[in-house]
Q: What sequence folds into this?
């Protein structure tokens, strides 16, 4: 069974901070290594025992990568008891020269384990060090104590089954087997040990606002209102109903994004500009519990990735573009409700359609203003059935746009002004004008400009000219 140091790591951290530890593991002898002289000492044993309070720093030289030094930033009392960690990152180690570097939890826990003792599963007194990868090790680790003394560990290759790695201590002729995850963490270059922001546990239905910048339509803001049939609406750059289905799909995608690689940390706008993040495209969602998801997207990072920021720090990451397909075409055309006039009939008092030939009015009367007592429906001054009213009203509100209108699109002649008066007394108007041989230009009070198929507008006018 492949067992590593993860549970031991967790236990060590808990023990250091006042908790309890669990120890699990099994000794796995690699097929290519000779059998040990003794097999009656199962489980883990420690290669050394050091006090973490005595540690000054850990220097790691991964093979083929830049050396780094993790400096202990833990405070202890005179008896060696941990008082706490008081740096801004709340981590027991800071990287010398890169004090804003944030280790992943697994990384700083492994450093903490290394500072005190390394569990091993087997001892081999006479192995070929070259065959174990120890003459050209995958990493060299130097522990420096506050008194100036040092301890050096060399990490060789993994065993053929991948369950363990070979480790040697300077001044010790033995070779030891240590669980694989010591190798997995400590041979990595520093950047690979940085924490990576992940997905967030939020539901799209709990979102209250989204915003996008850097789109073809400029900055977009959509806000959710409780208790409304059309829950989402655009408030910038135009006022219009939003598509709940498409907006919630956008939010779900945004919550699922996680960083793939850490790149670097920058200190100012000039540093951000190198990665195209001085004027980024931003994808933002705010939630009921106060959580805000704000991802900044910069320039192309190669290999199908893009540079990104995922928090308020200067940390720069790479994200696979395949994670961002939900946002590729996000804009007014995809997030707005496609209906030009999504006015729910339950809110309507009347709608007046004015053309060059005159006007037509559809009106609802509510007895004592109460929906539940009775309604009467009128087409101009003629009483009609509910079905007749509904058919005529649907011809007006069923108009959908094909796309938002480009800036150069202009109306050439009036087709109709459609004015809605709601039961609360508010009004809104949509103007339809001929634009070209195929489209009509629809302009709304909220600033929307949409291209609607000319034949659809003509069909609406034909219905409204019918017998009443």
A:
């Amino acid at each position: 069974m492949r067992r590593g140091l993860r549970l031991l790591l967790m236990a060590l951290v808990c023990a250091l901070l006042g908790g309890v530890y669990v120890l699990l593991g099994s000794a796995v002898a690699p097929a290519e290594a000779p059998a040990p002289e003794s097999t009656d000492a199962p489980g883990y044993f420690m290669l050394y025992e050091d006090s973490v309070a005595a540690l000054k720093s850990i220097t790691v030289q991964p093979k083929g990568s830049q050396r780094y030094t993790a400096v202990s930033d833990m405070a202890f009392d005179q008896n060696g008891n941990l008082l706490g960690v008081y740096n801004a990152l709340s981590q027991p180690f800071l990287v010398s020269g890169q004090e804003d570097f944030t280790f992943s939890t697994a990384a700083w826990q492994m450093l903490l384990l290394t500072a005190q003792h390394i569990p091993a599963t087997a001892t081999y007194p006479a192995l070929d060090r070259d065959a174990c990868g120890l003459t050209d090790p995958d990493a060299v680790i130097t522990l420096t104590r506050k008194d100036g003394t040092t301890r050096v560990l060399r990490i060789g290759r993994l065993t053929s089954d991948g369950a363990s790695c070979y480790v040697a201590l300077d001044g010790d002729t033995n070779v030891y087997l240590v669980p694989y995850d010591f190798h997995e963490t400590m041979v990595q270059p520093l950047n690979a040990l940085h924490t990576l922001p992940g997905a967030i546990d939020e539901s799209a239905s709990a979102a209250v606002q989204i915003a996008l910048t850097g789109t073809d339509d400029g900055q977009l803001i959509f806000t959710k209102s409780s208790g409304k049939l059309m829950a989402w609406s655009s408030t910038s750059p135009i006022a219009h109903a939003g598509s709940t289905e498409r907006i919630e799909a956008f939010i779900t995608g945004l919550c699922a994004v996680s960083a793939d690689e850490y790149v670097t940390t920058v200190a100012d706008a000039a540093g951000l500009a190198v990665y195209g993040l001085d004027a980024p495209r931003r994808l933002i969602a705010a939630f009921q519990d106060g959580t805000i998801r704000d991802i900044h997207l910069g320039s192309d990072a190669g290999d199908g990735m893009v540079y990104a920021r995922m928090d308020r720090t200067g940390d720069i990451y790479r994200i696979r573009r395949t994670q961002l397909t939900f946002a590729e075409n996000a804009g007014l055309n995809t997030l707005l409700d496609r209906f030009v006039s999504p006015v729910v009939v339950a809110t309507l008092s009347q709608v007046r359609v004015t053309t060059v030939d005159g006007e037509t009015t559809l009106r609802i009367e509510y007895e004592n203003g109460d929906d539940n007592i009775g309604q009467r429906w009128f087409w101009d001054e003629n009483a009609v059935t509910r079905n007749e009213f509904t058919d005529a009203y649907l011809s007006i509100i069923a108009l959908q746009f094909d796309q938002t209108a480009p800036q150069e699109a202009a109306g050439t002649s009036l087709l109709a002004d459609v004015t809605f008066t709601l039961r609360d007394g508010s009004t809104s108007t949509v103007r339809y004008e001929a634009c070209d041989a195929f489209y009509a230009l629809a302009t709304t009070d909220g600033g929307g400009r949409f291209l609607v198929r000319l034949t659809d507008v003509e069909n609406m006018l034909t219905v409204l000219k019918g017998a009443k």
